[in-house]
Amino acid sequence: MSITNFPKIIYGTAWKQDATADLVVKAVLQGYRAVDTACQPKHYREDLVGEALETLQTKHGIARDEIFLQTKFTSLDGQDRSKPLPYQPSASITTQVQQSFQTSLRNLRTARINALLLHGPLRTAQKTLEAWNAIVALKKENRVDLVGVSNVYDPRLLTYLTEGAGGVKPDIVQNRWYEGNDWDRDVVAYCLKEGIHYESFWTLTGSPALFNHPSIVKIAESRSCTPAQAIFRIAQQIGITPLAGSKNEKHMKDGLLAEHIDLNGLDDGNITEFVGPTAQA
Ligand SMILES: NC(=O)c1ccc[n+]([C@@H]2O[C@H](COP(=O)([O-])OP(=O)(O)OC[C@H]3O[C@@H](n4cnc5c(N)ncnc54)[C@H](OP(=O)(O)O)[C@@H]3O)[C@@H](O)[C@H]2O)c1
């Protein structure tokens, strides 16, 4: 897959436990061509994502390189210490990132990962920068195509990381996008300006009231789509790639079809007034 052709929607694999492999196979057979995971056994079965990729290749003829594969380095604070850790906890942060990456390659049964994200800031800006520089080094060594960060809600931290890595900015930011953080307006605007891909989570669950918002109801009625599809489409229209982690095959399909919903010609003004920067695409 060309990385210039960034996915419009990404299948998320958190909280699927033993069903992870089966659900990833179903999602890809439905048409998803991008999968998000993390080297964090607390919430993800990265090894079962790897099993799914192998099943897709051997049983369904879908090659590994047809799928945009994204994983994350999770620092110790985000790990469950009662489960096997993907790296030596006593190692330096740089070594932890390298070891986590090796664990991901093994789990995912692949020689190449398309995107590696820092799952969240560490306890200090300096430690966060050390982890970021270790991730950037993997990109410079051509081991990953894209690098990014998650759970960063202050654009100043994005600038700090970029400057601290000699000008290498994140290719991707993956954040909560919901009413509770005012749609992460500052970071979304920063990403749109800097050409950084913004991926959203909590897109559906974070703002339950949105399902009944008059603009969403109107779009759903006029476009014969579901409110969930309308929300995904608005995100895409702004330039956001939503993560969709449905366990339901009908919902999986709905998510995929969202990008084909035509929002042109709506007569209710600016449909994005309640979710952030004006539509870009
Ligand atoms: N970086 C981070 O810290 C972080 C944090 C959280 C999540 N993530 C990533 O984001 C992914 C998505 O997580 P999420 O928190 O946004 O929630 P989600 O796992 O996508 O699930 C949201 C809920 O929405 C429902 N749903 C999904 N698609 C739907 C549709 N088309 N119509 C109606 N209902 C639908 C699901 O129910 P059904 O299963 O019944 O459809 C589920 O109850 C995760 O799997 C993970 O990859 C990352």
Key terms for this structure?
8 strands, binds NADP nicotinamide-adenine-dinucleotide phosphate, TIM Barrel, 281 residues, globular, alpha/beta
Detailed description of the structure:
By secondary structure, this protein is an alpha/beta fold. The chain has a single domain (10-260), classed as TIM Barrel. 38% of the residues lie in helices and 14% in strands. The protein contains 9 helices and 8 strands. Strands 1-2-3-4-5-6-7-8 form an 8-stranded parallel β-barrel, surrounded by 5 helices. Helix 2 runs parallel beside helix 3 (93-108), helix 3 packs across helix 4 and helix 4 (125-140) packs across helix 5. The longest helix has 16 residues, at 93-108. It is globular. The model has no long low-confidence stretch (mean pLDDT 93). NADP nicotinamide-adenine-dinucleotide phosphate (NAP) binds at residues 12-14, 36, 119, 150-151, 174, 201-205, 226, 228, 243-248, 251, 254-255.
List the helices and strands and how they pair.
Layout: E1 10-12, H1 20-30, E2 34-36, H2 46-60, E3 68-73, H3 93-108, E4 113-118, H4 125-140, E5 144-150, H5 155-164, E6 172-176, H6 185-194, E7 197-201, H7 214-222, H8 227-238, E8 240-244, H9 249-257
Radius of gyration: 19 Å
SSE pattern? EHEHEHEHEHEHEHHEH
Question: Shape from CA axes?
Answer: globular
Integer count of domains = 1
The oligomeric state of the chains shown is single chain
- Largest sheet, described in full? 8 strands, parallel, barrel
Bound molecules: NADP nicotinamide-adenine-dinucleotide phosphate
What structural class is derived from the secondary structure elements?
Answer: alpha/beta
CATH class: Alpha Beta
CATH superfamily: NADP-dependent oxidoreductase domain
pLDDT < 50 runs, ≥5 residues: none
Strand order of the largest sheet: 1-2-3-4-5-6-7-8
